[in-house]
Amino acid sequence: MMTGAQYVESLRQRKPRVFYKGKRLENFVDHPAIAPHVRTAAMTYELAGDPRHSEVMTATSNLDGARISRFTHLFWSVDDLLKKIAMLRLVGQETGTCFQRCVGLDAANAIWSVTYEVDQAKGTTYHRRFREFLARVQREDLMCAGAMTDPKGDRSLAPWKQADPDLYVRIVERRADGIVIRGAKTHITGAVNSHELLVMPTLGVPPEGADYAVACAVPIDAKGLTVVFGRQTNDERKEESGLDAGTPFGIVGGESTLIFEDVFVPNERVFLAGEGEFAGPLVDRFAAWHRANYGGCKAGNADVLTGATAALAEVNGTIGNATVKDKLVEMVHLVETNFAGSIGSSALAKQLPAGNWLVDPLLANTVKQNVTRFVYQVARIAHDLGGGVLSTLPSDADFQSAEVGQLLRKYFAGKKGVDTDTKRKLIRYIEGITSVASLVEALHGAGSPQAQRIVMLRQADLPGKAKLAKKLLNIVD
Ligand code: SF4
């Protein structure tokens, strides 16, 4: 396994074509807009090397028996799924933000399971290819981004009916030695600082859309691939050096738009190429695993947020107030409800034909549905208790000013004996982690609320529930 420093060094060996705010970045690793996200992902490596966390952060590979990072491990039991949630909460607590690496983990599990079934049904060799790819990912401890969401253009039209057929990633050429893909993927978490991209379709497609049913692995510095790093709320603060820059880990995951301009993918990296009926299960499984995560990572982040809110109340001298305590308990209640859903969906997992275990889809989608609401509610309480200063605090430069700095320290003092910097750090953390980028990520990451409700309806077995009622009430159809 790599250390955090080795991971960062490994990124320097790659030469992706990266743009940010209109400029091409030659050294993306150290760019202040990107470096916080690199440091966060590096924590997934650091914690795996920490003996105190090895039970949660590492696993035994089912491919070759080696000890590997759990971020490259297939979910080979219910216990693996439970430990994954524990891992997400731990890394969420240590970084206070999104650490990106789980997308590729869930993508790997989805591709593993679906390629097995495609091969069984069609006599293809996708599973063997993916097994070899994954063995290398485990051996070299690579970070993979999962690239699923297409730009989608006119959402009332199927991919192959769009005015521009490239609005969904598609195969534009099939060669004896591989395929050529074109299109784009949007909001791809951690892509710029990943070694590999696991490209997946966004939706199941009928035979006429076969070219859109494509799953493959693309190195981040592949020829023809362009990475455009996105903006975030307060992102220019990352370019400051003072206290306003926030924690070393930034806010949310650092998302990119990926543009594939006729990227050649050799056969050994192609895991689906036209079998549209398998694209739907791939999407559903990836989504179930990833949605179940949110009660883990967001709980870890919310542990820090709740702690910061309580610490700020302490500084403000309000922590003894019964109403304040009750609001903090409400934060805990919401967070633990999400966590319980993630644990529950893992505990009720079922084994797939390929051997790995799939979380309960109804509970997984319910967790994510709750997250879309509870993260906002938790943030609302933090705003309520933190006060208006969360959005009006003067800049760090003003606190450092020879002319007004002392005055600001005097008037922003809290409880006697607490340094004003402590108060400002808490305020800035709460401000950042409850900002629009963070909330929108909780709402739309791993699929928008309506996407979960569609699965929930499918999984809820309403006719079965109606039968229960009729039986109890002695109603005969
Ligand atoms: Fe991982 Fe959570 Fe970030 Fe998704 S939102 S990549 S599960 S930390």
What would you note in describing this structure?
With 477 residues, the chain is of the alpha+beta class. It is built from 16 helices and 14 strands. The protein has helices at 4-12, 35-48, 54-57, 78-95, 102-122, 126-140, 279-316, 322-347, 361-386, 389-392, 396-400, 405-411, 420-433, 436-444, 449-459, 462-472; strands spanning 17-20, 23-25, 58-60, 67-69, 144-147, 170-175, 178-189, 196-199, 214-219, 225-229, 255-266, 270-273, 350-351, 357-358. A hairpin with a 2-residue loop joins strand 1 and strand 2 (23-25). The model has no long low-confidence stretch (mean pLDDT 96). The structure holds iron/sulfur cluster.
Task: Give me a quick take on this structure.
The protein is of the alpha+beta class and 477 residues long. It contains 16 helices and 14 strands.
Largest sheet: 6 strands, mixed
**What's the rounded overall pLDDT mean?**
96
Radius of gyration: 23 Å
What kind of assembly state do the chains in view correspond to?
A: single chain
Shape: globular
What class do helices, strands and sheet pairing give?
alpha+beta
Individual helix count: 16
What labels would you give this structure?
four-stranded mixed beta sheet; alpha+beta; binds iron/sulfur cluster; 16 helices; 477 residues; globular; 49% helix
Question: How does the SSE layout of this entry go?
Answer:
Layout: H1 4-12, E1 17-20, E2 23-25, H2 35-48, H3 54-57, E3 58-60, E4 67-69, H4 78-95, H5 102-122, H6 126-140, E5 144-147, E6 170-175, E7 178-189, E8 196-199, E9 214-219, E10 225-229, E11 255-266, E12 270-273, H7 279-316, H8 322-347, E13 350-351, E14 357-358, H9 361-386, H10 389-392, H11 396-400, H12 405-411, H13 420-433, H14 436-444, H15 449-459, H16 462-472
Parallel strand pairs: 1-10, 5-8
Antiparallel strand pairs: 1-2, 3-4, 6-7, 7-11, 8-9, 9-12, 10-11, 13-14
The structure holds iron/sulfur cluster.
Iron/sulfur cluster is lined by residues 98-100, 102-103, 189, 253, 293, 297, 445.
